[in-house]
Structures are given as structure tokens and as C-alpha cells.
Protein 1
Amino acid sequence: MTDLSQAKPGLSIVEFATRRRGRKRLDWTDWLTYLYLFLGLVVMFTPVLWVAISSFKTPANLTEFPPTLLPYANQTAVVEGHDEPLPLFDVVGEDGESRRLAQLRRVGIQAQMVDPANPEERIVVPVGDATPVRQLYLATENYTNLLTSSGGQIWRYLFNSLFITVVATAITLVMNSMAAFALSKYRFRGSNIALVSILATLMIPATVVLVPTYMIVAQLGLVGNLWGVILPTVATPTGVFLLRQYMLTIPDELIEAARMDHASEWRIFWRIILPLSSPALAVVAIFSILSRWNDFLLPLVVLTRRESYTLQLALASFQTEYGVRYEILLAMTTLTALPLAFAFIFLQRYITSGIASTGIK
Amino acid sequence: MSARVQLASAAGAILSLPARLIEPAMSGIQRGVGIKRMPWVFLLPNLVAVILFALLPVFINVFYSMSGSDRLFPWDRPFVGGANYQSLLDCTNYLDPSTCSRDLFWRALGNTMVFVPVQVICMIAIALLTAICLNRDIVGRGFFRGIFFFPVMLSPVVVALTWQWILQRNGALNGLISAAGLTPVNWLIFPNTAFFWSVFVTVWAHMGFYTIILLAGLQAIPRDVYEAAKMDSASPWRVFTRITLPLLKPVMLVVFILAVIRSVQTFDELYVLTGGGPGSATMLMVQYIYEVGFAAQPRNFGLAAAASLFLGLALLIFTGIQMRISRGGNND
């Protein structure tokens, strides 16, 4: 039997792991590259990981400095005669012997303790002699508290965010692909003017026309209404452009054949062109979902009522309201980031290729 | 038929209902207007939205900037000519913002003028370095690409709160610093450190986007050019400056323009991270527009519109300079 490790004598494990096509050994530029990439890994990834870990810490654990790496909580014990579980401490007595006691209360530098085995006798201990007994503990109650706090308002915010994202994306897809269909499959007077005026809006950032956009939304009676955030964002010039470029590659013969069969123009669009454009539609959809879910300035200006807040607005306002309640804030930050993190794992290929080919976001 | 199949077909019927209603309506329209005008029917919804929410606002914005009072609707607003611009530009000494009647505008403008070049240059330098590393023949390319890209997906609020949590007084960074035996710093309290972290956090959040574009640009450079350089035993630095950079130039221009347009409009991250503070040290133009037009009472829409026209102008100038530089470079 051939032993695989014997196949190439003189090949160390490091060399084996770093062996590649072409050249045999890593030169200094490769080491530099790996060094940089691992540094990048730390800088890019640990902040988010740290927030996720922190969201499982208890409030007491969160205020500790220096912070603990993993979430810890004081171990507690139920002692006869007390309703609440009491925190446990290791106390070094005068004889140098360590005992595990439960703390009743702390008065200045003295703490009243009790032995769980002998709940009748109270012991007064200097605080300096007591060290808390700690254990790894995932404070999942941060999340349950968040979901139930203020009457489950978070579900409202989640619904608002989902509603805006789904409806705006659906309208964007239909409207942009209709325009793209007209601009790619018909020759008519004014098509160039229409294309240029749509693409010209690329040069008009939403922040520059914030005041008039708000005015038009107000004129439509949509301040504080989710539709007030949906309507101004649906006509994306990049979406029209991307879909038009894609539809140009679909052969016109398909349309001619359908016209021979007396299909209406809408039917041609809906039944032939749209299904064939699905790769481009997927890219437009992903970017629409991303930007609508993450949108901040327009919702901040338009959605003035608490009930109409999106997750992002609620999260930003939590920052000031729950300023001291970090555990709630961290749990909500993690929850808000989670859907996109999952989506990213599955859609990374589409997203990166979409960006690389169009530069849209 | 099982319950699940029934449910699925019912859901399918409900979802396709709008489409089924639209089809007869659209063929009715087609009979009415004739096939020649159908492209306009297809264009109509998008054009209405574009005109209503992009083209029209540009003109209304100009009127806003030339009208006063805190009334929202243009027909309620008295025409004041250049008063808003005069108020913005009213300074006794242009080098000292505190002598201006709208000193916050000048501070925001000054901050933006520093922030944009610093942030864009840092971001593109790091994005280029990352793209070059990712373009090499390395193990785990897809993994590392994902790692550098994923902050782009995070919402600005999440990004800001994440870094706030790390930079706060008892945060992880100060934990590391005190573990190393140094004195912890309250990062977001001092103007200089707050400004540094504003740049850092926005670069952290957006560089992945530009890395992907630059990586695509690098991959489009033919391999045999590098092979030829290797034959001539050119140094890596020479290969970079004489081959990679010149061939990457068109992509670099796109990246620069996109980065500048977005950098000038930075708002969300800093609004949550620093709130423009300490004082006004990290307040940029968009936040000024928001504060003046929407957060302050009474709302001064005229001033906000005038400031946003300045912002639009700044964007045009920045983009124009870049086009100029790139065209100038092509001549030699």
C-alpha cells in the first residue's frame, strides 16, 4: 500500500500546504500578500463579530473594563429563605481557606454573605476578599427583551422595512423593465431624449434635491407614510440602463414571431422579454433590496411618525433613547445586520459580478 | 391533491392576479392608442417618476434657494432673490468661519473639503492594494474577497453603531490599548481623533465596493503582458507603475468619480457615529442641509436648498477636475 505522505519525500507540511501550481515555493511577495490579507481579515471581520458576541453579554458584563472576550455572568444560587437567586462569591477567610458564599447585599466595603449550605448564619466579609464566581453565559434574554419591549414595536419596524423593501423592489423591477423594453425594442421619435433624460438623473444625487423631494411627497400627502419613501426611489436610472443593455442582446426575431401570432405588446413583454431578462433582473433586484433595506436619509426626513419607522430609523433612535441600555442596542444591531449577512452568503457571486460589470450599488 | 400543493397553487393564483388584470387592460390600451404609441405607454410610469422625483426637483430647488420663510409649498413662499446666498456667503473674513453669519455652513464646507480628498485617496489606495493582493494566485481567494466586501452590505446605521461600540470609552479598542500598557483615549471626544475615525469607518464600510471594481479591472489585463515583463526581468515596482497602473486607468477613473460622488454625500454613518461632533468637527455638507432644512425649528428650506446647490456645484467641479486630469494624462 502506498502511503501518501511518503509520495514526495522531503516535502514538509508547510511546503505541502502552501504548494501551488507553477512555482514551487512562496516568495516574499506571497508572504506579504498573506500578511496583508490576514490583517484585513482581522480589521474587517472582528468588529462585527465583537458586536455579535457583546450582544450576548449581561448588562453588568458589558460595563466591565477591560471588556471580557466571551460573555460571562455571575453564577447564582437559590438559597432557602430568599426569592431571588443570589450571586456566588469565592471568599478567602482569615485562615486562608476559600469558601463559596452567596451575597445578600453590599454595604460600603462590607458585604453580607450567607453560606448556601447553612442559610441561617450571616457572615460579614470585606469586599476585597470576595471574587465573583463566573461562568460562560449567553444572555439570550437581551433578544427576548428586545422582541417584547414596548409592546413588540420592533415587529412594526420590521414590517415597515420589509414592506418598503419588497414593494419598492417589485415596482422598480416592473417599471424599469417596461422602460428598458421600450428603449431597446422599439424605434420611435424621442427615444434618445427619453433615454438621455433618464440617464441624466444619474448626475442628480438624492441629497441635492432633498427639499423639493420632501415637498412633492408632502404635496401627495405621504409624509409619515411608507409610500412616501417608496415612490421617490423607484425610478432608478442604473436599473433602466442595465436592463436595456441586457434586452438589446435578446434577438428581435422572437418578438416578430410573437407578433405574427397576434400576441399583444404587453404579452410579448411579460411572457417573452421578462423571463429572458431574468439574470439582469436578479442584479437589479439585489441592489434595489440592498439600498431600500439600508436607506436612511429619505426615511429620516419623510417618516416622521414613530409607527412608520423603519428598522434603521428605530435603531438610530434607540441609540439616544436606550443610550445606557447597550444590551438592547447591541441585540438590535445584530438582528438588523443578520438578514443581509445571510443573503450575502448566498448571493455573493451575483452581487460582486453585478458591481464589477456595472459599477452600480 | 395534497394541502401543500393546493396552498402553492392558491398562492400562485393570487400572485399572478395583478398580471392577469394588467394584460387585458394593456391590450385594451394598445387597441386604443395603436401599436406605434405603445413604447410611450411602456415608458410612461418610469418617465413620470423620473420627472416628478428627479428632474422637476432640480428646478424647484433653484426656486427654493431664492425664496424665504419657513413655509413648505413654493406658492406660499415669498421671492427673496439672492438673500439666501448672501446670508451663506456673508463673512468678514473668509479664512475664519466664526466671522461668518452662517458659520456652520463654512465649517461643514471646510470639513467636506478636507474629508473628501483624504477619504477618497485613502480608500482607493487601500482598495487598489487589496485588489492587487486578491488578484494573485493565492489560497482562499473567494473567502478573502467576501471578507473585504461584506461591510458594503451592512447598513450605515449598523456600521456606525458597531464602531461606536468599539471606540467608546470602555470599548474593545481601549481594552487592547490598556492591555498593551498605554493610556486609553476617548476617541470620539476629540476633534482630530473623531475626524480620523470618521475617515477610517467610511473607508472600512465602502472600500470593498471599489475593490471589486478594481479587481475586475485587474483581471481584464491580459496575462501575457506580465509574462513579457517577467522575461525582461522587470522589478515588481516597475511592473506596477509601467503596466498595471496605465492599463488600469479607465477603471481608476470610474472608481474615482464614483468614490467622490459618494464621499461628498456622506451622511448616515457620521450622523450616527459622531452626530457631526464634537462641536462641528465632523459635520459635512449633507448633514448641514439636513440640520438647517429639517432638524432645526423653524425649518429654513431656502437656506438648505441654497446649500444643496453649492453641494451640486462642488460635485460638478470635483468630477470635472478628475475628467481633466485623466484627459491630460492621456496626452503624453
Protein 2
Amino acid sequence: MSTLTREGRAAGESRAQPRSGDRLSDQHDQQPPDEGATPPGGRPDDAALEEMGNPHHGRAVKDAAARVVMWGAFGAVIVPLVWILYTVVSHGVNLLLSSTWWTNNQRNINSGDTGGGARHAIEGTLMMAGVTAVIAVPIGILTAVYLVEYGRGPLARAISFTVDILSGIPSIVAALFVYAVWVTTFGIERSGFAAALSLVLLMIPVIVRSTEAMLLLVPNELREAAYALGVPKWVTVVKVVLRTAFSGIVTGVLLGLARIMGETAPLLILAPYTKNFQRDLLHGNFPTLPMMINQDRGDIGFATAAERMWGAALTLILLVLLLNVIGRVIARAGSAKT
Amino acid sequence: MAKRIDVTDLNVYYGAFKAVEGVTMTIEPRSVTAFIGPSGCGKSTFLRTLNRMHEVIAGGRVEGKVMLDDQDLYAPRMDPVAVRRTVGMVFQRPNPFPTMSIYDNVAAGLRLNGVKNKKTLDGIVESSLQGANLWAEVKDRLNKPGAGLSGGQQQRLCIARAIAVQPQVLLMDEPCSALDPISTLAIEDLVGELKNEFTIVIVTHNMQQAARVSDRTAFFNLRATGEPGRLVEIADTTKIFNNPSEQATEDYISGRFG
Amino acid sequence: MTGVPVVDEKPEPKGNAPLGGDNASTARLGDRLFGGAATASGVIVIAMVTLIATFLIVQAVPALLDNQENFLTSRAWNPGGDQPGFGILEFLWTTVVAGAIAMLIAVPFGVAVALFLTQYAPVWMRGPAAALVDLLAAVPSIVYGLWGLITFAPFFRPIQGWIESTFGWFPLLAQTGITGGTILFIAVVLSIMVVPIVTALSREIFAQTPLAHKEGALALGATHWEMIRTTVLPFGRPGVISASMLALGRALGETIAVTFLVSSLPNGAAWTWSLFNGGETFASKIANNAAEFSNPSRTGAYIAAALVLFVLTFVVNSIARIVIERRKAFSE
């Protein structure tokens, strides 16, 4: 067995017949296969094999380059995240620390005035999200139950397909649809409730898909165990399947809420902003954080309005983040148990 | 040319867990060495250290020495990629690349090494498939997906893929455990032919298989669950099966083991 | 028969009510109510989508019939009045081009980040790093709009100036005199918004690449990158395609951020192929003119535009769906 070094080859080995002994000695030099390692059943001629002497360093360089590219891409994606968060926090944090931000509304506060708070918009956003959830969550969960526990055949496929369509509908289209029904067809005034209806359309597919994924994770053995005890199917679904998947479903609901809370387009069309407290979802204008941002963006020439805008944006981000964090904590707690 | 493997005082760890302890053995070139032993005794783990595949699993590391002739596989500047290029491996379950045709599967390793010439590839693909006793069965459908073959054919395809890059050593990790008896026989015949060209190490659960295909046999065992696996003895296969030196080996061979 | 759900063991006549699939329990009142509620919810979802399509069509048609211009090829936008004339060519161009460029940027980045999270990052880092990328998805789009408008635009302006002066000879990059809210700028902001969508789905499927395939490649002497190229990327390709389609759907429909950023063009502005032109997308045009919804004919024009956007996103999402289904069939 020859174990020639690089000098050995330099001393006289032809490129076509290097020994594989030095293949391992230098990671930057991938050698052609040794003559002895002929595969059974014949071998191609030497001249053809010469091509295998592809220098390994080309491959190592590519490998290293790929590594750099992946790290670089991650860095590049983190830059805007940090930049955005820094922008919002640095401009908005002062207002959030002021005493009135969490308690007051913007009544009688003009664009150039300071003071007031975002309480009305925070309450409005939460109320609207609550109403949306009250409608969307039962429909979403029951639809997922149908798809997983009952659905077979064409109806299930049709439902699954429409859920996909629904999840792809742009928020502005959902808003325009509600406008077409609510305002144009029935002549009802624009209101917080109308906006909530369009948010329902956006939230349902999120709930269906996340609940469906969670129900599919429930092992069939659990269902069979319940059936074997003579438990009716609906009790099995409610008490065994849904309970087992509970934390996952809650997480899905919270993430769905987080998604619709930041939606602005439906509010723009269906729920005009007011600076006052508003508890009536069915009549009149309705305050929300995105619309507060939108309002103050219009008066961005005023430093006070600009600051309010960033303050409202930061509040909205915090609200959405809070839901995300709670959702993930619940998901983790739930998965740790099982 | 097939190479000899010398292992000295090898310990294998996964994180803090010591999976294999103190293995010293020599694996002869152009022969078949079988690793036998109960489940969890570390034989597969040890096998993977021979081409540094254990490093694929997070936390996997070794202490000790593995020499391939006079090359230290764990020398600081040694590239695991080059090691694996020289020490090929066939896995427990056949794992042809599902998105590739039969031809592309066999050519995969060559293409990685920069072989682009169609004629060269054709030649090596054919000779490798013949070497794996698969050529006659697939020569008319080289462009069909490899995943469409039967389990036994897939495994031979993986062997063809491994020998196409003409390694020095071929490691086989229970290559027949997912196959039916007839496919198993085909692989065993193949192993017998391949040992003329390669150093072969085969892990098997099946003692009859070890007796049929191997020249030398190594028996691995562990003292108790949670303890690291260790090499009990290695000797000629006839000796291990007829007249082992260790009581533990004899107990295992004769079925008196747990 | 163990491991098979009871429902599957019952033979089910085709086309029957799904409840008929589980004969054991249909007779009970509770089962009927609960199963009925589940079915009803599913039917409600179907009804919603049907209603959306129906209402949009019904309210768009009268406006389209009165339209004096060609709806698909005209660049004019004069809805309402006695002689309404409107066409969507400009919105279609801006929407599709901005979406396409956003994809050109977001897909490579999203895939690279997904590979980073599944194949390159040290294990301890994967969870937190993925959470950071998800955080990018959690930022409301209105905040992207603000950031783009106020912080990022001044930063982008010199870059645009440099591109214009260097590559201005190329029609797509010709100078237009518009400095803020160009198609290219909107595309860049959109790409940042959809990267986490591409990453999230791609990450999921990359992580599912069977270890056996990866080990097969490594055992042949593949480098880490070659292993990814031969196993992870081919395995994940359908996932990447459908992720990209979903992201494209999101980019096409994104409303508020684009509305903040866009430079609307005056009626009758000269046509240019330049990416440094302004121009509304479907979504921003509708949102910017919400106050104009005064009479049915006016509103009808916007609803017609929404209908086109609906069809556009529907097609894109259907492609994603088909690709996912194909993969399911392939892997089973």
C-alpha cells in the first residue's frame, strides 16, 4: 500500500495515476480514485477517470461561501426588525410613560396640542377584537372539528378549499365585501361592528387551520379508548379531543387575534375614527389604535401628532406582542404536559 | 486498494453520555468484519465513528485513535468530508434520494466530485450497478425514480451509489434489517463479491448472517443498561462461533443471553 | 385494526351526509346537535366565500356595463358621473410588478434564512433566532408603512438616485423625477414584510428532510452545502414554491403599508416602464378613496377593482394549494 505524500507525486507521479494515499492527508486536494479500487464489473478507461481529480478546495470554498451567505441573510433580515423596533420605541416610549396615556382619550385635543391619551383607542381595539373573536372562534373551531372528526367526501373537500380561499383574501377585499352588503345593500351605517364582521372573515381561516393541526395531533388511541367505554361521539370530541388539544387551540386563537388587531384596511373603510370613548359598536364612529395612527399620520407636520402616532404604534406592537407571547407560553406549557 | 483500519482505545460520547468505551481492534483489508451484539451495545455507534458520521448527531465526539493505514482519521486537519469520501456507508433502511432517478442516484457522489463527462458517468454508473448486481434489473429504466424500486433493489442501489465513488472501506449498518429473506440473500451474496475490492464492515443483528458472510467477527456488549458499550472480543468468525474466548460471547452465541 | 379511527371502519356510502359515516352515534340528540353545529359551521364558511364572490360580482357588473372605457386595458380612472370611464391597467401593472420584485428579493432571503435556522445555526440559537424572525411577522403592517414612509424612505432615496444615474439607460430603471413611493421602493418594503412568511413555511419543510437522506449524502462525501443541495433543497422545493405563492398573495393584497408609501399619479400621466415610477396598487387605490364611496356607480368601479384583486390572489393561492397537494400525493 503506497502512501505517497505530495512530494512523492511531485517527484514523478503523473496526474492520471495519483495514489489515494495522500487523499486524506490534505483536505484541499481530492484525488482520483486509486487504481486498485476498481469496482467489480469493469471500469472506465484511465483518461476518463482523470476528470475525477477535481480539486477539493473549490468545493470547500463553496461550502464556506454558503455558510457565510446563510449567516449574512439572517443578519440582513434582523437589521430591518431592529431598525423598525428602534424607530418606534425611541419615538414613542415617552408618551407611553406619561400619566394620561393609559387613562385619557383625545377629546378636544387638536393636532398641535399635547396631552390626552390612547385609552379610547386601546379599549376600542380590544372591544373590536373581542367581538370578532366571539363570532369567529366558535365557527372556526367547529369547522375544524367538522374537517377532522366528521368530514369525509366532497363537502369536507369543499370546506377545506374555501378555507384556503378565505385565508388568501386580502383584507381590503373582505372590507369591501362587508361594505357591499352592509352599507350598499342594506343601507346600514358604518360602525365598529361592520369592521368586526370583515375581521371575522380574516380570522376564521387562521382559527380553522391552527385548530385543525392541533386536532390531528390528538392520537386516535384516545378516541378509541373513549368509544370503547361507550362514550357518545360528541362527548368524546368535546371532553377528550378538544380538551387534549385545548392549549394548542388557545394559542391559535391568540395568534389569530394578534393578526387581526393590526389590520387597518377594514377600519379605514368601515369604521371611521373618533377621538372620544365609544362603547357602542353598532352606531357611529369607532376609535381603534390603527386608526389613531392613521389620523395622526395625516397631521405629521405637528411634532405632537407625530409623537402620538409613534406612541400609538408602540402601544399596538406591545399589544400584539403580548398576545403572541401569551400564546407561545400557553403552547409551551401545553406541550410540556403531554 | 482496500485499506486496513486500526482502532486504539476509542471512546464515543454523545454530549456527556459515554456510548462506547475503550475499543481497540484491527480490521483487515479485503475481508468482511461483522459486528454483533445485543441492541444498544454501541456497535452501530462505533461503526459510525469509522467514517465520522457520528458527528452528524449533535454532541457526538470521540477520544482515541482511528488509523486508516497510516492516516489518522481524527487528525486536527483531517476533513470529515474527505473521510466519508474514502469510507463509504450503507444504511439500515435503503435511502435513495427520492427526487433523483436511478442513474442520478448512482452518479450523485461522482457529480459532487466534479465528474461531468457523460461518458465517464455512464461507464461508472454501469460498472457500479453491475458491481451491486442490479444492472440487469434496472438497465432499461435508469431514468425512473429510485424510490420506485423494491426494498432490496433500493438497498443494492444504495450500495451501487456508495461504491461508485470507489471508497477504500464500505461500512454497512444492518443493511438487511428492513429486507425480506430473498433480498437479504442477494445482499449477502453481494457482500461476498465486494470483499475482493473493499474492506467491509457490517453490523448485523442476525448471527447466522454474521456466520455466513464474515471472515472476522467482533462481539460487543454492555455490562448494564446506561453503561457504555464495549468490545468483548474480536476473532476469526469460526473461532467466535465455535470456540469463543469469553464466557459472555458464548452465552450470547448460544442464546443463553438475556 | 388497531390504530384506525372508528369512523374509518364504518363503510360510508358516497355522497351521504358526513354524519352517516359514523352510524354508531347518529341517533343521539347530543350527537345530532353537535355534529349538526360542526357541519353548519363548515357550510357557513362556504356560504361566506360564495357570498363574497356573488356580492362583488353583482355590484361590479352595473358599473362595468356603464363603463365607457375598456376595463382591462384603460389607464383612465373616472368612476361615477354621467360618463364613467375607468380601467385597471395601471393598478394591475403596479400590483403585479411590485409583487414580483418583492418575491425576487424575499424568496432567496427567506429560503436562506430558513436554511440558516434549520441547517446552519447552532442548536441553542435556533429557537431564539426563529422567534426573532416570527417577530418580524408580528409587526402590524401599518407600522411597516410608518417606518417605510418616515425612516426608510430618506435612506432609500440616495440609493435610488445612484441606481438612476448609473443604470438609467435601462428602461426599467429610467429616471422619472419621482423620489418617494416608487414601485421599487414599495417592492423593497413588501419584501421585508413577506420574508417571514417564506421563512416560516420553508423552515417547517426543510426540518422534515429525512435524516436518512441527509446521511446518505454525507456518507458519499458531500460537504454540508452539497448535502443541502442534493437532499434538503429538492425535498423542500414544493414547500418553498407554495410558501412563495402565499407570500405573493400577501404582497399583492397588502393595503395599508402601500397606501402610506405610494405616490399616486395624476390622471393622464405619461406611461413609463420605469420601476421608479409611482402608481397605485389595487389595494391602495381602494383604500385611498374610501371616502369616495358615495354612489353605487362610483363604488361599483372600486368593487370591480377589488374583484380583480380577489381573482388574482385566488389564482396565486390555488397554485400554492396545487403544489402542496402534489407533494402530499408524492410522499404518500
